[in-house]
Design brief:
Blueprint: E1 6-12, H1 16-27, E2 35-40, H2 46-53, E3 58-62, H3 69-77, E4 82-87, E5 90-92, H4 96-106, E6 110-119, E7 124-125, H5 128-133, E8 156-159, H6 160-165, H7 179-188, E9 192-203, H8 211-229, H9 232-245, H10 250-261, H11 263-269, H12 275-281, H13 284-289
Parallel strand pairs: 1-2, 1-4, 2-3, 6-9
Antiparallel strand pairs: 4-8, 5-9, 6-7, 6-8
Helix pairs in contact: 1-2, 8-9, 8-10
Length: 298
């Protein structure tokens, strides 16, 4: 089942043992994908440990934590037409990468395929899966699954050319909800995003994480995306909803302050998405308001 069409990019930070385990699982896949591990400025010996155990893996040791931009670095180092993303606490089920490549071969207008996410050790679907499966975004008849308005990078396979043309992940957003801006820009450029139930990623959430930082950055990025790409009325409505519903605590206050600090950049780069895209994706507003998986709580 060796398949040269899909490469894999793993990003990691300060999780040496988990990074080694993630690469080991990827090297055991029947597709035998080329792997790029991008170490986001770890000081725990992650890069050296992966190089020592897997000399055939391309290890990139960055001098600082670039967040999701580490994926851009990895994509640039691969020559495969398709790239699967993987975090250090996720792994792809055997056969999924091959199926993804077949789908992308057959549907040249798909830029991103989002896999089903299985939570370990329970084996249950992640709560977000129901929202992906029941996406309200209208889909063209040829699309082989529900159309999406965004995706989860750690469970996605992207068309490398489309990803690079859209500029990849923004360095401003760092990490946390960074996918929404890229997704909107891909759709605005004529690409489609699709969910597939038969592509499977397993996720065992790392205990080495800062939930308050993730919530702070996630809230900031949601506000930035809203004001970068939504029309004025919709941006005001979304901002008001967040102000009512996020926890009124220090983390939310810091996230809001971070968003305000980016105002000059935001104003210089504001480009509301085309009305055809806005009307198509506006159906997501109600789904996001009712979401149980996307709550700004630690």
């Amino acid at each position: 089942m060796i398949d040269a069409r899909v490469g894999v990019v793993v990003i990691t930070h300060q999780r040496r043992d988990e990074a080694v385990a993630a690469v080991a699982r990827l090297r055991a896949l029947p597709e035998r994908p080329p792997v790029v591990l991008v170490d986001n400025g770890s000081t725990d010996g992650t890069a050296a440990a992966v190089r020592d155990r897997f000399p055939d893996v391309d290890v990139v040791a960055l001098g600082e934590n670039l967040g999701a931009v580490g994926r851009n670095v990895g994509v640039d180092r691969l020559g495969t037409p398709y790239v699967a993303f993987c975090d250090d606490d996720t792994w792809w089920e055997p056969g999924s990468l091959r199926r993804a490549a077949d789908l992308l071969d057959g549907c040249p207008r798909i830029a991103v395929l989002n896999a089903r996410i299985v939570v370990e050790p329970s084996g249950a679907d992640d709560p977000i899966v129901a929202e992906l499966r029941d996406s309200p975004v209208s889909a063209p008849g040829w699309l082989p699954g529900p159309a999406l308005g965004s995706f989860l990078a750690g469970a996605a396979v992207v068309r490398r050319d489309a990803f690079r043309r859209a500029g990849g992940f923004s360095p401003w957003l760092w990490l946390g909800g960074e996918e929404e801006l890229l997704a909107t820009d891909l759709i605005s450029a004529g690409w489609e995003l699709c969910y597939r139930d038969d592509l499977v990623v397993h996720h065992r959430a790392s205990v080495l994480r800062d939930p308050d930082l993730r919530r702070r950055v996630g809230l900031r990025n949601t506000l930035w995306f809203t004001w970068l790409r939504r029309p004025l009325r919709q941006a005001l409505r979304r901002t008001a909803f967040l102000a009512r519903t996020v926890p009124h605590d220090r983390t939310s206050a810091l996230g809001s302050l971070d968003a305000l600090r980016g105002l000059p950049w935001l104003l210089a780069n504001r480009r509301p998405r085309p009305w055809t895209v806005e009307s198509r994706l506006s159906a997501l507003d109600a789904a996001q308001r009712a979401s149980r998986a996307r709550r700004y709580v630690s």
